[in-house]
Queue: 4 jobs
Job 1
Amino acid sequence: MPRIISGQFTTAYDDTGAGAPVILLHCSSSARSQWRELGETLAADFHVMAPDLLGYGDSGKWRGDAGDLIRAEAAAVRALLATANAPLHLVGHSYGAATALRFASQYPGVLKSLTLIEPVSGWLLTGNEHRDAYTELKSVADGFRGAFRAGDAETGVRQYVDYWSGPGAWDAMAKGLRTYVLATAEKPHHEFAALFDPVNAAASLDRIQAPVLLLHGAETRAPTLRILKILEAGLSNARMAAIPGAGHMSPITHRKLVNAEIVRHIKAHAD
């Protein structure tokens, strides 16, 4: 398994196929395996890299400050791109999509296309018109972080898993996956602070000129839909699409439909 060093952190990643690079960023409490089926499909035509984000899978742990977290994740993407030395297609889901958005605003000139699946970019929810969405999303983040700091990670994890996937989702989860989520719970503790840090909004959305697919589950939560609408209004070349019957975790629960949308978007902007 290849690894790349960016700053003081080591990122492990899957590396398959050949051609224009595609980088796939997974959600919180997940790993690069989230994208295995999509990676296998894309590898017929593209050079696909799917990293474990910091603190997950085989990558190194995060030991810095919340204010630097998403920038460090973006730097790892930049380091992966340097191995390919070509413009890329970037895909992210949830926290991974927030990272992809931060990367795109920092390095807009290296993108051929961008796919954002429900980015939890709480820093975009500013102003009174977004107060309800901000309050709802922040309460989920604060509930988890409070429980984690109190030494009760499972209560915090249950709250946020059930929020995104429906009541009882945590208890219904396979035992091995529950063990992994609890073992990596320190990372979302940092992520849920970084997602509301205005430092991540430093670059203007109008810098992003690449075609953007804004993808969401038709049954998703209101805050992420609000974030997507902000992005749709602020990006010059964006298209919104909904996955019927899906919620926030559509890349996992409705994988085939999501993958088809992503492949279509990337291939439409491959030249």
Note: The two ends are 30 Å apart (CA to CA).
Job 2
Amino acid sequence: MWYNVKKCRIGEYDMDGKQKNEKRVAVANFNIVFTDVNNEERPLLDCFDSIVMPALNSGIERQQGNNTYLLMNIEIKQDSAGEYLLTGLIVKSTVLERKSMFDENGNLIERDDVYPTAPFSTFIIYLKNHRMILVENQKGSPSLDSFRSTIRYIINAYVTKENHIREDQGLEQLPIPIISIVGIVPKGGMASALKEVEKVTVLTLKFYPLNGDGDIDLSGVMQGVTRDLRRKLGCDRGSVVYRSPKNLDAVISVVEESQGTVEPIIKARYPKRKGETTIRYDEIRERRTMWLPEGDRNSELSSMIQQGKEIDSINYISEENNKIYDRNKEKIAAHIKK
């Protein structure tokens, strides 16, 4: 006798006995700095109403092969402490091909079917310190890499288009965005990545303009190299290379304490492997899962916001973060939907 057995997974349940859904989460530093004609750098929130919100709501789409990436449901929310957040969806509009399948008798048969699909991920940006989480809704949902590329494309395209219009009208140009959305390495992540390493041959720290994170220890130590010298040379970004560092504990500490304010790239040798292996931050950035209650979209979003606040790296706020946030709160609040 044959039975039709439906596969199921034992998950978590909320207090009402409803099963929760498990989602993959990436944690990152959503860093955007704008440079004007005088090479003065302005943080994200100073250009929030003049560039960021208009760009994200512009309807500009990014094409990559057969995939179209777009943003939807861009909104300003408040968490339980009354702090402002920017939330939205990144959607990947694509098609899936099915070339074969099993029939009802278990035979493999050829097909030629095409299905339109639109997997999405939810992003939540905590505007007080521009840390963010990206929650993937399903397999195939846009990743942090896709989000980074899409945000960079949309904001750059918006500024370019607006500046052409402004040039024709004799108006002041919008400042140019420098966009660096960098995954945050969790405590223990580097130690795990380097556990089997025989030797670190090269540690590269790629720097970019910071959005009010100047009192992170690493940023303070490297300020002369990263900010002052970078500005003097007229560079948007820079990097520092350390060859054959012998203190692995220090390498781990430097990367983890940077809190997404640098992009680390490590080259290392492993026992019984030929040549060098490159360890990029995408391989060690903070990934976790989140259990969400089944229900409407607002319930899910509220749970994401609250659980995000429980992540250590989301809660870091510098003095400069506070100053930037306080002077821009009114322009953020103006975008709350009535």
Note: The longest helix spans residues 144-169.
Job 3
Amino acid sequence: LHRNKKSIIQNKVIGNTLLLTINNASKRNSMIKGFHDEFQKSIIDAEENRDIFSIVVNGAGDFFCAGGDLNALQTRRTMTEEQKYETISQLKRTINSLFNGSKPIIAAVEGGAAGAGVSLAMACDMVIMSEHSFFSLAYVKIGLTPDGAATKFLSEAMPRQMLAEMAMLGGKIDASRLYQIGAINGISQKGNAMQTAIELSKNFERLPKNSLARIKKLTRHAYGNNFESQLNLETDFMVLSQGDSESIEGIDAFLEKRAPDYKKLR
């Protein structure tokens, strides 16, 4: 999973966590050409690696991700609509790789996330931001509109008026305000977001893989499903879980007053 220094995405395995780093600090880790292919491959590789239990996504240097590359956007003016759809679908595939993956993913936001960088962070299961960092959806300032499911993710985390403020005025919403409304999971000291996220990811080393994958799917569908659909999905997953070796180990360990060993079942 290690890549050479020229890669836009650098991968490092720490224990059972994949640290996925956007390595384009000179451009505030914007999504330059090749970003999406490398990012998606890293997620797919991690999905297939049995020794990786969770993923932490961060940016090199002092900024998480500035979103799309404006130089590339400038060249898209002459594209046909079909070509524009294809380039934007690269971001859709990246967001889907985070949203639909089976393993827990934590975003470690240092400095800030802007544009599609907000989508990238919010597509993760949990978000840690350093103090004084921010989210910014400034599309309106350059005559564009948000993409990458940014408005969907944020609508699940904040009132409509706050989302309107973010998207319509394009200002910065700081980490403390996002934490107060429950849109993110924690705030670290400046420069410490990655380490805090890695510490959080260690929890998954002791937890059951199949159960986590099902719970992730439940949390993803809960906001879009109606009551009956979600109730049925929960029922289906409970039936699957009750027949799983993980629940046999978990229930036996509880009754025997010992710690469960889920690692042996991976």
Note: The CA atoms of residues 177 and 262 lie 37 Å apart.
Job 4
Amino acid sequence: MIRHAPSIGLGLGLSLRSDVLGATGPLDLVSGASAAYSTRALSRGWVAGDVVEVRRSSDSTTQDFTAGQIANGDMAAFCGVGDGFISTWYDQSGNANDATQSTTTSQPKIVDAGVLITEGGLPAFYVDGVDDRLELTSAITNVGDFYVGYVSVIEETSGLQAILGANTNTNYLRVSDRRWQLYSGTGAGNTGTIAWSAPFNSRYLMSFNRSGSSVTAQLDGLAAGNGTNAADITTFTKLFLRSNSTSQLWKGNVQELIIYKSDQSANREAIETNINDYFGIY
């Protein structure tokens, strides 16, 4: 596995279309991410870095792949006519906080019967809403101000769906039919309602930014709700699941997740313009 620290310093004013491998990524624009995961390279410094480890269904062999090896068909060829599952989603922030899953039945699927899963024509993986989730190598702790940007399809379910969670029910960020919630375990967690502008089963860029006790939500670059959260989050330890229980699992195709443990109000537009330039969401 090749690891490269993100290269920084191209300036917030730059945002070129990043559907060309090696173009500017969000981590080039804004440094200091706590964790960053994607099916693409998120910085020029990660072009040769692995973005996923995949387990093939035929014999459970695993192999690492760069974004380029996903795009050029190497990963699908490795899986053959079978399925491929994410065993590790590599952290590109430079903090080596990889998201992993050793339980094979809980690994999200990225190749289905020899065919790469895509969303909007770009690589994605499917989280089934039943038992799929990933565990962070290291807990993200003492989360005060933060920014979370997330590219995914939301498939409609009867329950809430968690983006980030912890080992207990006391810390999580989740969304649902017409509301989203940041919960810190103090009873001061309900942060407002998102007015969804499009139906389920479509891809969105969602973001959440906390500055002091104020939390704002954005949906496809537009304000989608705001609220308050008086207490800091203690810990995030997992993706796509609220807690160790099997409740509130995410369901849908996923492509990118970036987490900053800092207020990114001033940089949000630059980050999200870059994300949208690549994924072409809105």
Note: The CA atoms of residues 162 and 174 lie 4 Å apart.
